[in-house]
Amino acid sequence: MSNQSLSIAITGAGGVGVISCGELLLQAWAREGGRGLLRKAYGPQIRGGESAALLKLTDKERYTAASHYDLVVALDWDNFSRFEDEIRLSEKSWVLCEEGAAIPDTVAALQPNILSLPLEETAAAAHAEGRVNMLVLGLLGELLGLPVESLCELAGEKLSRKAETFREAAVSSIRQGVEMRPACHVNVPDRGETGAWYLSGNQAAGLGALEMGIRFVAAYPITPASDVLEWMAGGLESVGGELVQAEDELAAINMAIGAAFGGVPAFTATSGPGLALMSESVGLAVASETPVTILNVMRGGPSTGIPTKSEQSDLNIALYGLHGDAPHLVLAPLDIADCVFTTGWAVNLAQQLQTPAIVLSDQFIGQSTAAVSEPRRWQPIELAAEVATEPADYLRYRMMANGVSTLAAPGDANRRFTADGLEHNEKGTPSAKHSDHQQQLQKREQKLLQAEYGDDWAKRGGDGCIALLCFGSSSAAVAESADLLAERGLGARVIALRLLAPLQAGALASALEGASDVVVVEQNHGAQLFHYLRGQMDFEQSVHSYSEAGPVPLNAEKIADFVAEVSGK
Fold it and tell me: What is the CATH number of the domain that holds 135?
């Protein structure tokens, strides 16, 4: 057990309030200046089945999943076996469970400290409608030293739409849980002096999009992207925007493209199956040079796959899924807070470069909630597009030095042009001429390659002869593995890519200077990032692949062991 972190798992059947208990606990912890991560694990069932709130409370901001759990509260054991790969116990772990419940053999074999408590009986004694999840909230809040009034206030806010008796039962259960004071011993991390932001990756992505001017969203619900749409609906209303629930993903992307063509910054969110359906229309946005931003919250595939768990396996379709030569932007936020920055950056780039931008988040980032410092925002950079001085001179696809033509919207005075999926000339008139095709292909490519992206193409840190390359949610586990390697006397630098396409090959090569080995780390089975990088540039170093499929989050210790092995140290 570490003095810097405390990992807690609350498990039970779906619908009994396990997730609510975890959310309220982290929210109360954040109020008191704490930092931490809540990961939600559940099966594909609408109700019932397995459910777990997985918390990692820290004295500083970290976004990795816990490698083991210091404290497990099992509201029941019926579905616990489904979490055996994710909730790892040891003889140092504490397990709190219902009195008289049969302990699974797999748990007993690990010889944790088991404490049986009359949870249901105590909740019933607290109130006629007492809830065990609220009892556990009070119990855990007391262990963490959180003010009971804060717990009660937060529970009241969450249950504000419920009947008064329901809220009374929750408060009574919390207060009774505080009084239980179980005889287990955990090390509670230090808290900061100020409160923290409390948000999920999906909320952060929505915030970044709204702050950069998105005013129209069209989407079709899909796990794990649906909650970004639910959150944005209220945000859009407050700024005069609009969200439309489309009948399917094809309609959603076409609505977004239509809005963008009309001059309204537009956005959609989906997951792998939805992105596949959108691919033809995204090609239309490339050809017509219409700015639109697509958030893809990756999950386990193929097909329906594992919709409630995380995987970084949509990289190939994001990079290569469009037909024809269709250059576009692909970006990936590195953690929950970074979703604000990277999504905002993607929106700005799409608008300024007049092209679609795909943002690759994933279930781990999107549906996890964190207590973080105020997120960094993207500061817009204006890319100058030359404006025609005379109406008659207006050419929508005029060849420009930077490839970015003047963009007019329907209704602009004396600006008439054609735009569709057919190849065209500078005016927008459909053309099958070889020269027009070559000219426009070059234009669409060069505006992306010539753009100045600055230093935010990647987050870089550390130093050493080993370079660890990654993207998205893998970056936290990779950074932690670099710390572990440093403890072993092996220095490692971490390069976490935000801008995946166009790849900043020159900047990456410079960042790798002096390294002897490169290890590409990612969470998918096919080593998609590894093969993409090998196809885009020539490495002077020995390049190794560490690729592991989901749904269990990447483990920093396993990564460190692999790096040490391939480096021969």
Answer: 3.40.920.10
Does residue 472 come out as left (phi exceeding 0), alpha (psi in the -120 to 50 range) or beta?
Answer: left
Amino acid residing at 158: K
Q: How far apart are CA 322 and CA 317, in angstroms?
A: 8
Q: Are strands 369-372 and 35-42 parallel, antiparallel or unpaired?
A: antiparallel
User: CA angle, 208 as apex, 204 and 214 as ends, to 5°?
Assistant: 130
Higher-confidence residue of 253 and 384: namely: 253
The alpha carbon dihedral of 156, 162, 165, 166 has a sign of negative
What is the DSSP pairing of strand 329-331 with strand 94-98?
unpaired
Q: Which one of 424, 450, 476 terminates a domain? A: 450
Listing DSSP states for 36-56 in one string gives EEEEEEE-S-SSSSEEEEEEE
Query: Within this chain, do residues 438 and 465 fall inside the same structural domain, yes or no?
Result: no
Q: Which of 42-51, 154-163, 186-195, 206-215 holds the top average pLDDT?
A: 206-215
Q: Do 163 and 279 belong together in one domain?
A: no
- Where a domain ends, among 343, 372, 401? 372
When pLDDT is averaged across residues 37-52 and rounded to a whole number, the result is: 77
pLDDT band at 23 (very low <50, low <70, confident <90, very high): very high
Examine the pLDDT at 392 and tell me if it is beyond 70: no
Region 318-330 average pLDDT: 97
Q: How many domains does the chain have?
A: 4
Q: Is 103 in the same domain as 244?
A: no
Same domain, 263 and 347: yes
First-to-last C-alpha distance (Å) of the chain:
27
> Three-class SS string for 327-346?
CCEEECCCCCCHHHHHHHHH
| Residue 1: predicted pLDDT | 37
Burial class, 268, CB count within 10 angstroms (exposed 0-12 / middle 13-18 / buried 19+): buried
Confirm whether 191 is domain-assigned. Answer: no
**Torsion sign over Cα 199, 200, 201, 202:** negative
Claim to verify: residue 432 and residue 459 sit in the same structural domain: no
CB count within 10 Å of CB 160 equals 8
Q: Is 378 part of a structural domain of the chain?
A: no
**What's the pTM value of the predicted model, to 2 decimals?**
0.93
Q: Residue 390's pLDDT band (boundaries 50, 70, 90)?
A: low
The secondary element (H helix, E strand) that includes residue 483 is helix 474-487
pLDDT in tens, 151-205: 999 999 998 888 888 899 999 999 999 999 998 889 999 888 777 899 999 999 9
